[in-house]
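Comment thread on ticket #2218

A.B. wrote:
> Attaching the input chain for the structure job we discussed in standup.
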Amino acid sequence: MAFKNLSASDILQVVSRSFAVCIPLLDSNKRIEVENQYLLARFIDTIEDSRHSICDKKQLTQDFLKVINGEYCDCTVLIDTVRRKVIDEHDLALIDNFKPIVETFRSFDDTVKQCAFDCLSEMARGMMLYQEKKIQSFEDLDDYCYFVAGTVGKYLTELVKAKDGIELDREKALANGRFLQKVNIIKDFTRDFNEGRIFWPAELFCQIAPDELMNGRGNSLQAMSILSRIIGSTRKDEQATAEYLSSIPDSIPGYRSFCIVPALMAHETLHLMKDNPAVFKHGTLVKIPRRRVLQILINAKTGYYTNKRLSKIFTAQ
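C.D. wrote:
> Ran it. Output below, let me know if you need it in another format.
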């Protein structure tokens, strides 16, 4: 399968419909930069998920950073090597159009490129760290989620500062990233397990093995207890997320909507997963209905989500 000459927005439609929905909400002075940053971060994620050896993944991420940083001008070898061992053919839409993505990145001003590169470097380092290190505890989970998503919150905060002159709370932005990532980790448990990956803390599986959770083969009370614990960990970042959303001023309505939509989708998804054995059922993905996603989008675009309404939504768990 090949995907040639796709625009950045077309690539997003292939690799992440949720981001394809959210990024157009952004204020015009940040839209291209955020779109480009997501695609670059997704390229690192593609390396992380690939069938390459850990040693090769480390080299590929270093080569990626050198391409982005301008040390390597030609990224053909990187593209060809990553392409050979992807686990999801949809990622080829990104790989086959990587050169114009890099060219767009190089067109940004130095301030934007630097904060973007800093985020990507830290993300790559963390991903490679957890290729060899298992997530043993909830502290490890927080650490992993910081690298893969909290760094994005840091980048966005720096971008808003550079583009709009507005200082947002960095720590709450990090919590927002961790919150979204944890919801995805819970939701994708069975898919990740079937692909040979487990992002839930190993300390949860002292009395029951992960494979026993699949399709109700284990003790249902133990399964719900484990689910409750990881949801509880996620709730800790949810409150900071709510506070972060409320801190975003109306003067940057696009950015506010861009942050509100995925946070509300995650909030409602988390509610659906609570005490829900379908989380452990192979082939089942717990998610909110598409009509509800559209409703959240429309509400965000029309300014429905005032701080008062957000507070009411996030306190009703």
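A.B. wrote:
> Thanks. Noting for the ticket: The chain has two domains: 1-132, 134-317.
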